[in-house]
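Project outcomes to date are best conveyed with an example. Our students and postdoctoral researchers have been running inverse folding experiments weekly, and each run begins with a structure described purely in tokens. The record below, which covers 761 residues, was selected by the lab manager from last quarter's runs and is presented without edits.
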């Protein structure tokens, strides 16, 4: 099974690395070759690779066909939809997952935002909605969240926001939906609304809609996020409990009956029911498949290899739902079990004399097991999350016994004891809740340790190879030569950083923050952030979602200077988040500190400094001159490596442009940031002509409501000889300028890191 499973999964995974799907003709050729190769045992792995790729290709094409056509992007639709998942409330907005009913032309699943609803929709309800929809798309930045990829693997064909909504009917819930909804209502009435009750909902019925962002961060920092997903641990406990009760009942009532087979069947049934109630997440599906295969072996009196069972479960899950291969949970779930099976095979438990020695050996084995999981999963967690939860072994050692022995059993028994036995069930649910409060206190304490949940830079070059070597500690037996290299590789990856620009050069990154602005300037040893992007209606901002993840991915732990061009929300809204997250040596703003947030000083024409041979000069605003507030108060920053220059302009308009143009302060530049996102209030002919830019960069949102950049503005820059790039089309844009060579690098992240599910427009 392994020789078929691994190549098939590798073939499917390889498709996810392509910028676009192969054509239909190529897929049919691959299918024909793959079927031909199945005839001989030697070529079967290659056949499995091709057929795995083909199955993934078919599923990916089907999902892409279910997306909202780009020609209808931004249109308003009226339709009836059923709410198919618990809404996530993040007031003033509510996140909904709905399925349109009898709405030809619309995708099967939509993700909608409903602002300030009079009534929060509930699962199973039918609503008449008017919504503005857009095809799956997200900002594209190094280190940033791939929103389009997430929508694709969730099977969501469009996102948008609700304009009007009218409740039509409460709808008809399935049996499983009624059970889940009843459990949510019961726990909501019984317990206070806090992180412990939200976690109890997550582990009992898979409803994670109430888990706060702070709780997610706490679990991630301590390496205990797996507790939030109903996985093999939960399913195994449910199955073991049901099987044990069935076996004891059979042994008491029918001493001569086949209690083993009956208990096995009941245990499997309990696992499937629990997984269904929990929403059938990937870890739950994996656990059910493995238990089903093992139960089949028990019932047929066959001894099955755990490795073969794991491989079969992985292959079956992929065949049933091919896009699951894109889910981080799929790889982490199966990889964690693979590590555990490997350790179980390699280690032989020794008999320890005495209770104290036995307990000590047991604790040391648990701690070593957690360390093995940390190292064995290190490549995946680094690639997927760029995080090292070094406290995970200790955190799991403290939390797992309470969670496994107290929390989960009490939660499941509490939900089962309902109706006439609800009093006893409520008591158990309260005890489970209090155990989770204890767990949260422990995790909060651990998450407060320095460096907990250490964020790693994106591995590049040699670090991307060393990334896989920590697995040697798991794979090699004790005393094997080279096993200690695992720790060397771990330290190397942790301390490695993407290389900064070479001496005499600097990098300019214009980040894709939507309708706003955020630029990062790096010299060999210094970093400057120019603006922090917009805020969002839900309360978050681009600094949290784009700027800070990008800085972490580059290994930047502090800023030498933060410049806020002016006080508009699309430029300054993330300032507080940046100051709270990173040490900032100096900050300045184009408007008085009382207008924006606190800053060390104001920008003023004539300010100048030099970093690593790179010159920085503020050209505007002038005290007492044109532009003392608003857009025209924007800092204008000129950066030069010798005679090769970049101009960052903020939102200055024509009066300031004219003053700069005729004041003799403008010289030809290699890269110019187009003022005010390409508005007609800016980019005057004299300004554009004076700059003679090689490249003009527009930071603007995709299909924004103002229509920026304006066509005539783009034409003006192009006629002056500039290549015009927009963050909407290019994603994050990187330019490198060097003293000797000038502009030596231009990189558009939406193109360089494109995957087949990304929109190219």
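After processing, the design step wrote out the following sequence:
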């Amino acid at each position: 099974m392994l020789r078929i499973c691994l190549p098939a999964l590798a073939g499917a995974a390889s498709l996810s690395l392509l910028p676009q799907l192969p054509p239909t003709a190529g897929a049919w050729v691959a299918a024909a070759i793959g079927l031909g190769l199945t005839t001989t045992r030697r070529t079967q792995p290659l056949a499995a690779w091709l057929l795995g790729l083909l199955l993934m290709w078919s599923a990916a094409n089907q999902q892409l066909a279910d997306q909202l056509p780009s020609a209808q992007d931004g249109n308003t639709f009226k339709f009836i939809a059923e709410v198919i998942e618990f809404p996530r409330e993040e007031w003033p907005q509510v996140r909904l997952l709905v399925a349109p009913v009898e709405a030809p032309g619309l995708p099967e699943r939509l993700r909608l935002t409903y602002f300030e609803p009079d009534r929060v929709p509930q699962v199973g309800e039918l609503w008449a909605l008017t919504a503005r929809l857009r095809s799956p798309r997200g900002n594209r930045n190094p280190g940033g969240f791939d929103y389009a990829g997430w929508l694709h693997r969730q099977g969501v064909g469009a996102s948008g926001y609700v304009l009007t909504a009218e409740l039509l009917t409460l709808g008809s819930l399935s049996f499983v939906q009624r059970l889940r909804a009843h459990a949510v209502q019961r726990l909501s009435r019984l317990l206070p609304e806090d992180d412990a009750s939200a976690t109890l909902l997550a582990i009992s019925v898979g409803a994670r809609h109430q888990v706060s962002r702070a709780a997610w961060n706490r679990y991630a920092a301590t390496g205990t996020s797996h507790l939030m997903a109903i996985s093999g641990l939960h399913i195994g406990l449910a199955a073991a409990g049901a099987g044990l009760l069935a076996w004891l009942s059979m042994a008491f009532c029918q001493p001569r009956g086949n209690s083993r087979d009956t208990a096995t069947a009941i245990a499997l049934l309990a696992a499937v029911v629990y997984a269904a109630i929990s929403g059938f997440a990937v870890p739950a599906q994996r656990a059910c498949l493995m238990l089903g295969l093992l139960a089949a072996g028990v019932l047929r009196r066959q001894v099955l290899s755990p490795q073969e069972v794991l491989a079969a479960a992985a292959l079956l899950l992929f065949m049933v739902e091919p896009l699951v291969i894109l889910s981080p949970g799929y790889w982490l779930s199966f990889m964690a079990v693979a590590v555990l099976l490997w350790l179980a095979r390699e280690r032989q438990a020794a008999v320890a004399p005495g209770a104290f020695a036995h307990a000590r050996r047991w604790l040391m084995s648990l701690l070593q097991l957690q360390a093995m999981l940390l190292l064995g999963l290190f490549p995946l967690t680094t690639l997927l999350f760029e995080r090292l939860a070094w406290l995970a072994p200790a955190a799991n050692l403290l939390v797992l016994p309470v969670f496994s022995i107290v929390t989960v059993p009490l939660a499941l028994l509490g939900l089962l004891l309902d109706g006439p036995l609800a009093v006893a069930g409520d008591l158990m649910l309260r005890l489970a809740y209090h155990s989770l409060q204890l767990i949260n206190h422990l995790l909060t304490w651990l998450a407060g340790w320095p460096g907990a949940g250490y964020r790693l830079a994106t591995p590049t070059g040699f670090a991307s190879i060393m990334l896989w070597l920590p697995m040697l500690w798991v794979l090699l037996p004790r005393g094997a030569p080279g096993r200690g290299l695992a720790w060397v590789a771990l330290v190397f990856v942790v301390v490695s950083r993407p290389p900064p620009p070479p001496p005499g050069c600097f990098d300019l990154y214009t980040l894709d923050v939507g309708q706003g602005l955020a630029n990062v300037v790096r010299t060999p040893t210094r970093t400057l952030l120019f603006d922090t992007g917009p805020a969002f209606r839900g309360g978050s901002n681009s600094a949290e979602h784009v700027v800070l993840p990008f800085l972490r991915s580059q290994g930047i732990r502090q800023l030498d200077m933060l410049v806020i061009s002016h006080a508009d929300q699309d430029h300054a809204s993330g300032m507080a988040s940046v100051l709270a997250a990173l040490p900032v040596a100096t900050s300045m703003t184009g408007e008085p500190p009382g207008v924006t947030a606190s800053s060390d000083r104001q920008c003023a024409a004539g300010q100048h400094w030099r970093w690593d041979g790179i010159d920085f000069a503020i050209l505007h605003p002038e005290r007492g001159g044109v532009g003392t507030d608003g857009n025209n108060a924007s800092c204008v920053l000129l950066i030069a490596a010798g005679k090769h220059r970049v101009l960052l302009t903020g939102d200055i308009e024509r009066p300031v442009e004219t003053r700069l143009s005729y004041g003799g302060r403008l010289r030809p530049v290699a890269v110019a940031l187009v003022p005010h996102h390409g508005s007609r209030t800016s980019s005057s002919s004299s300004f554009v002509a004076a700059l003679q830019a090689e490249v003009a960069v527009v930071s603007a949102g995709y299909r924004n409501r103002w229509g920026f950049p304006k066509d005539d503005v783009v034409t003006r820059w192009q006629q002056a000889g500039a290549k015009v790039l927009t963050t909407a089309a290019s994603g994050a844009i990187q330019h490198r300028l060097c003293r000797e060579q000038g502009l030596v690098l231009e990189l558009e992240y939406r193109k360089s890191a494109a995957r087949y599910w990304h929109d190219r427009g």
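Residues 348-352 have pLDDT under 50 and may be disordered. The radius of gyration is 29 Å. The training component of this project remains on track.
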